[in-house]
Amino acid sequence: MASGATSATGLRRGSHRESVVSSSSRNRAYSGRGTNSPPLRKPSTRSSTAAASSINDVERRRTERTHITTTTTTATKRRVPIKEEYRPSPVRTRAPTPPAAPWLPEASLLPPTAAPLACRVSVPPLSSELPLNRAPIPLEKMDVEMQEAAILEDLLFVLMGIEGQYIRFQEDYNPSDEKERLLGPRFKIASGLDPSLRDLTKTVLKMATYYAAVDAFVEVQSREEFGVVNHALSAAIRKLLQDYLVLIGQFEHSFLTSPSFTLHMLHLHTMPTANILYQLYSLAKEILKKNAMLEDEEDDDSMDGFDDADNFIEQFIAGNDGAKLPGSKICRGGSVLSLLTQRLASMAGDPAAKALLSSLLREASRPYMNMLNEWLHRGVIHDPHSEFLIKEAKSIKRERLEEDYTDEYWEKRYTIRLDDVPPQLEAVKDKVLLAGKYLNVVRECGGVDVSKEMVDVPRTFEDSKFLDNVNSAYAHANTSLLELLLTTHALPARLRSLKHYFFLDRADFFQYFMDISNSELSKVAKKININKLQSLFDLALRQPGSIAASDPYKEDVKVQMNEVDLTKWLMRVVSVSGMDENAMNMDTTSHGAAAATSQDEKPITGHYALELDYKVPFPLSLVISRKTVLRYQLLFRHLLTLRHLEGLLSQSWKEHTTVYTWKHRSKYPQVERWKRRAWNLRARMLVFVQQLLYFCTMEVIEPNWAKLMKRLDEVKTVDQLMQHHVDFLDTCLKECMLTNSKLLKIHAKLLTTCGMFSSYTSHLSRSLIAADPELAAPSAKFEEGAEAPQFDPENMVKLNENLGKYEHNFGRHLKILLDALNYFAATETVVLLSLCARLQMAQSRNESEAEQVVAT
């Protein structure tokens, strides 16, 4: 064992042990060895001739017969012959004792367990149950040499976990209790043993405790629920225990054939083996503590280690009885390898322990490396026991990508078990995750042949090509997926298509759509016919000469209504946690249910509720995910609102320049001053909306779009590609002032004021005619000879008051916006300075013009 303890040979507990040693040993244990028979060999020196002859006579007269019944249990019966009492001196004689009652110990066959190689024979009867008439000869009646022979014979049994005549289990030890077997038996030595022999016996008995505990550990860890890494570790330990049993067989041979074999020699020969068994015992005890099968001082009842709720539910539904309940702690997979690595580092100064732990780590890592190679080279996880460092959430399926607004498929389907990462993979765990994720996408698109056998891949952590294998697999997977996205599925063309539709780039078709659908969009959002609107949109897309007519992806664009106002929707998002992932989780297809408006809120019209949707096929949906499409929709609604207000204000300008009421000059100076004020306010609003629209498109979206296209040419990894795309959208949202709650509020008030004023123009015309009837169109004037209506100063006062409210509102909020832009340009983003300069010029010019108008 000293030389073979560290070798990785196998052990099957049932067949091999009985074939090598245990068949004769167990027969002796069950056959009533606890009688007053002497040791099986003669004393080595100075024994009396009479005693020797008496022992030989007894041995010659010993007969054994074994009968095995064919019932449900296997029973071993022995007929005990009439024994002569041991006579140390031929002078003393004693009458023979009457035959003792037969002792019938039985062994039953246990039902099979999840550990296929576990022993299925029941625990043998304890020596404490032995009848008194079968008690062995007391040690006090033997000399030292006879005591040594008796103890040596007992130790050969005890070292295999079987009680002896003079060495037995302590009374509080129960071999049927799994926890006590895992801790190892505690032994007691019969009284009367020589002190020197007792000390040596106690030292050797430690090895018996270690062996029994490690043997029980192998049985427990071989169960199915402990995973393939524990199974491989148990198999490696089982090989060592087989070598140990061979060593015990060699000791038994020496005991029976060599009179010079002593207890001291046994102790010397077992010292290296005892050290090996102690290392195995310490390792087993530490693993069992992590499994909560043994008490630990730092034990807690937390559920932090339970991270596979989805897999547990699926196993439970599938009827897997081996599924562990939430909160149960199991040390398996990467945790076992981490523990072995840590112990190997701490035992670097002990050559024997280092060789042993290196062998165990090498064998235990083989199934783990198989899983790692499957993941790195095929993008597949075969992990039925949840022990690999990559966790797969099987409940998140590819089919959910069309409704996935949280990027769950990419972000949460495959994650790292941070507590189960082996130290060997700690530095490259992110590469391992990404390599498998990339290859998994390529495999689902038919780009990986999973039937091809993997060759020339490392099988253990000790392989020199271990890290090179991870790096090369990562580079291959990354290149394959990038080529699939950028070339095969034409990602840049898809992004340009999105830009045309959502950012209204060269959107002549969209203006045509707005014109033909104006009557439908003027309705309340709830009353709009979506099918009719979609038909009109398809008609606009197919207009000859438009950029959309030649777009191969135009069929993927759909029209839908969002009944929640854009500002309210953005305020809800920003008030949660900014424009982060968690804030974008709300489903835009169900805005009415997710953010229902109260009854006193005015419903919005179709112009403000219109938004586009875009269907993206897999695997492009990983880059253009629902989360990114939502960002596109927010920007689209913002730009559409500005375009709609620009159209309304332009329509007001058209009315102001063509309608007789506004075009005809009044003879009352106060009416003309009022008209100039209205024209000036309308011009200021139009300049504000146009400058804001120009800023969002030409100074925010276009420069950032150019940067994105440049980064696509230089991108190295798929995750960089995805991050660049999200960064582009987030930057556009931020610089368009859609992520700042203060700017949002001011911005919303200004746009609301502009919208109300543009829709108020027709009412202003009627109020103007009521104040000065001379401004009515000639066809609508009073009949000839009738009394002409007079100028109404009261109506003029009301017009001045109403117009003054619009001027005050717009001017005040514009000044607040300029102050806020100056502040945030200095603290957050410099790009707002250009907008601030444009709006300031417009404000100062318009204010000076207004002052001149008022003065005249």
TrEMBL record:
Q: Name one GO biological process term.
A: mitotic cell cycle
Listed Low complexity bias regions: 20-34, 45-54
Record field: transmembrane: none
Q: Where is the Gamma tubulin complex component C-terminal domain?
A: 491-841
Q: Name one Pfam family in it.
A: GCP_C_terminal
Which stretches does the entry tag as region Disordered? 1-104
* Keywords from the UniProt entry: Cytoplasm, Cytoskeleton, Microtubule
- Where is the protein situated, by its record's location annotation? Cytoplasm, Cytoskeleton, Microtubule organizing center
One GO cellular component term: microtubule
Bias (Basic and acidic residues): 57-67
GO function term, MF aspect, one? microtubule minus-end binding
Q: Where in this chain does the record put each Gamma tubulin complex component protein N-terminal domain?
A: 152-486
The record's listing under InterPro entries reads: GCP, GCP_C, GCP_C_sf, GCP_N
Similarity section: Belongs to the TUBGCP family.
This chain's protein is named Spindle pole body component
Q: What is the lineage of its organism?
A: Eukaryota, Fungi, Dikarya, Ascomycota, Pezizomycotina
